[in-house]
Amino acid sequence: MSKYNLNFVSKFPVAVIFSALMIITSVTLFFTKGLNYGVDFRGGAEVQVKFGQEIKLGDLRSAIDSHGFKSSLVQSIGSPGDNEFLVKVNAEDGDLNGVTDKMTKMLMTDFSAINPVIQKTDIVGPKAGEQLRISGFQAMAWALLMIMVYIALRFDYKYSPGAIVALLHDVLIIIGIFVLTHKEFSLQIVGALLAVIGYSVNDTVVVYDRVREQEEKAPTKNLKQQINTALNETLTRTVLTSITTLIVSSVMYFMGGAGIEDFFFAICIGVIVGTYSSIFVAAPTVLFLDKVVGQKK
Fold first, then answer.
1. pLDDT at site 297
2. H-type helices in the chain, by residue range?
3. Do the first three CATH levels of 9-38+128-296 and 44-124 match, i.e. the same topology?
4. Cβ contacts of residue 186 below 8 Å, gap of 6+?
5. pLDDT in tens, 159-204
6. What is the 3-state secondary structure of 4-37?
7. Dihedral sign, CA of 75, 79, 81, 84?
8. Quick one: which of 11, 80, 272, 273 has the most CB atoms within 10 Å?
9. What pLDDT is attached to residue 244?
10. Domain ranges within the chain, ordered by starting residue
11. Is 0.90 topped by the overall pTM?
12. Is the distance from CB of 197 to CB of 143 less than 8 angstroms?
């Protein structure tokens, strides 16, 4: 028995309109502005360098830009005292080694007074980057398909579309936010999206499981009442789990450094959006499909 008696179902129409607007905005941004793909996906060169003395990020970026490197991106790694940076630049397929050598030479020459040490160099060809990008999106598609099959077998076919709609909702909104903020979309962000899919579907499954319990315990109630009761009974668990996960992810975002900042940015957004979708996207979809099936019968 839940200590809450909130009428979630009455808020579903407003939530559906709000979600539809967010998805439309995200899709529009994706096709008009596009994602800022990282070196993993667009191809290019990546150099990790550590300096023996302090250097300002702006000075390093200015020196790189003055040498004409295309679309350079400079990030500080670790704590400020480490003086370690990650430099990423675009490059054509046949020019990757040349760009890497030129970047290394520039760093060693222009900053020789502060003892630069090249920690690591990576190159990714544009064709390889494109294939990697396709594989990343395919991984998400397969994950969604397998989740749909699992929920159809675990519960009932009428629940499966709701879970998939909720997961697509989460992924599209995160992608839209990445387009809007112009944050780099790399392979680690695909990993973050897959983690969000797992988190969100777990939240949705908990709600669905309680709805199924309500169908068995109170078969005289209509589906709206059963869903409302299930959402109230799982509300404490949902909120506490989300807050705990969000606190940990926020700490990692603010304190973890540039190397994992974007990953946990995606996780933080995913926890918020995933919690919302479990209540206001997955459940309304089940109601809608139940109504459509009922009308057909």
1. 47
2. 12-32, 39-42, 57-66, 96-110, 126-154, 160-181, 187-217, 223-255, 258-280, 282-296
3. no
4. 37, 38, 39, 40, 41, 262
5. 888 888 999 999 999 999 999 998 888 888 999 999 999 898 888 8
6. CCCCCHHHHHHHHHHHHHHHHHHHHHHHHCCCEE
7. negative
8. 273
9. 95
10. 9-38+128-296, 44-124
11. no
12. yes
pLDDT value of residue 208: 86
Tokens 């939240």 correspond to what residue?
Answer: 203
Give CA separation, 27 vs 14, 24, 37, 139, 200, in Å. Answer: 20, 5, 16, 20, 20
User: Per-residue pLDDT averaged across 32-42, rounded?
Assistant: 83
User: Distance (Å, rounded) from C-alpha 57 to C-alpha 69?
Assistant: 16
90 forms bridges with which residues in the sheet? 44
CATH no., domain 44-124: 3.30.70.2040
**Tokens at 231, concatenated:** 């959402």
Query: 133 and 185 in contact (C-beta within 8 Å)?
Result: no
Q: What is the pLDDT of residues 111-129, one digit of tens each?
A: 888 888 888 887 777 777 7
147/266 Cα distance (integer angstroms): 21
Q: Can you tell me the distance from the alpha carbon of 130 to that of 121, in angstroms, rounded to the nearest whole number?
A: 20
| Residue 187: both structure tokens together | 């392979």
Q: What is residue 238's three-state secondary structure?
A: helix
Tokens 């350079």, located at residue: 72
In terms of Cα–Cα distance, which of 192, 208, 206 is closest to 266?
192
Asked whether the predicted pLDDT for residue 88 surpasses 90, the reply is: no
The answer regarding whether domain 9-38+128-296 maps to CATH 1.20.1640.10 reads yes
292 token code pair: 């459509």
* 103, 45 Cβ separation under 8 angstroms: yes
pLDDT in tens, 206-226: 888 888 888 888 878 888 888
Give the separation between CA 191 and CA 20, rounded to whole angstroms: 25
CA torsion angle 225 273 268 236 (round to 10): -10
